[in-house]
Structures are given as structure tokens and as C-alpha cells.
Amino acid sequence: KAKVAVLISGRGSNMAALLYAAKAADCPFEIVLVAANDPGAAGLVLAAAEGVATFAMSHKGLKRAEFDRIIDAEIRKAGAEYVALAGYMRLLSPEFVGKWEGRMLNIHPSLLPKYKGLDTHKRALEAGDSHAGCSVHIVTAELDDGPVLGQTPVAILPGDTEDALAARILIAEHQLYSRVLAEYVQRDSQPEAILAQVRERAMALPRAE
Ligand code: GAR
């Protein structure tokens, strides 16, 4: 089975979805580590209770690249081959992203390329969209920008609040992430075809001075 490290910052419900999906005998991945940048992240308790190794350390007071090197070392120590970001609310250093190129996925609560960043549900409601949803994508150096591997549209209902919409999208997130991660780790073409896509996109980006 493909070994996956999951990075979280809080509740960890997507991490839990991956962890429970991984309990199925025919699931092609297993969770070997749950790491958090906040020792108070609720998801850590669940992961530990399920017998999964955990690592937690606050990023406060550390430079981004320095903190990411610590996380990277932990992930490697755990033997992970893939990284799944699941509500990891921290930008990653280009060094870290480079090291996991084509092997790091993220779940985002919008139909990308719409609504990158925060407040996705609010923005979808304010725009009067008929559908919101969630996306799983490959992580690149640009925020919420890598190639999209899968999406689930979720209808916006009359009278929907941010919380109600977020709760419904979360149900879709849990299913989507498990399915897409399973498909991804089984791909024969991986990582060559995906890497070509990632690199093409990186070259098209304006260079930061
Ligand atoms: C999820 O809705 C996830 O899509 C979102 O944070 C929530 C985490 O919940 N992620 C982002 O907004 C990343 N930009 P969880 O901790 O229960 O999985």
C-alpha cells in the first residue's frame, strides 16, 4: 500500500475520512503519519486513538523553510511516499513543495479555479452561484493552483448559510478526497505525466523578483 502522511491544522475531518477509507482491505493507501502545525489540533487525538503515529509542533517563532524542513524530516522518517494536505492552513515553502512535487495533494472547498484562498463558501453565496463544491489538486508553489484531479459540485440551496453550505460540501469533500487519493496512488503514469503538467504550469507563471 502507498504510504501517506496527512498534514492538518485543526478539526481533521478530512484526515479522519482518509483514515477510515484506508481501513478497507482493498484501499491502495495507508496513513503512516498525521502531522500538525498546532499541538492543539483536535484531529491529533483521533489519529492517536486510531493507532496512527502523530507529530505536532507549533510553527510559531520559526522561519517557514525551517519549520517545513522539520516536517519534511518527520514525514520521511515515517516512510511516507505521498503527502495529503487536509485543512493544513499554512503556506508551504517552495523548497518543501519542490521536494514533494507530484506527490502532494490538497483538498480545497471550492470548484477551482474559482475562489482560491479563504472564505470560499461566503464568496460563492455572495456571487449568487448555483453550485459550490470542492476540488482535490496537486500542490504547486502557487496557492490552490496545481492541476485539478477531481471535483464535486454541490448545489446551493435557497436560504443557505455559510455554515449549512460548508457542512454539505464537507460531506462531498470526505468522499472526493478518499476516492481521488486512491486513484492517484494507483496511476501507472504517475509521476511523469503529472510532473510534466506541473512543470509546464510553473514555467508559465511570472517569476517573482
Ligand atoms: C476543509 O473544508 C478543507 O477543504 C478546508 O478546510 C477544512 C478543514 O476541515 N481547507 C482549506 O480551506 C484549504 N485552503 P477538516 O480539518 O475537518 O478537514
From TrEMBL:
BP GO terms, sorted: 'de novo' IMP biosynthetic process
GO molecular function (one): phosphoribosylglycinamide formyltransferase activity
Active site location: 108 (proton donor)
GO cellular component labels: cytosol
Keywords noted in UniProt: Purine biosynthesis, Signal, Transferase
Keyword Nucleotide-binding in record: no
Protein name, as recorded: Phosphoribosylglycinamide formyltransferase
Species per Swiss-Prot/TrEMBL record: Sphingobium phenoxybenzoativorans
GN (gene name): purN
Full protein segment contained here: 5 to 213 of 313
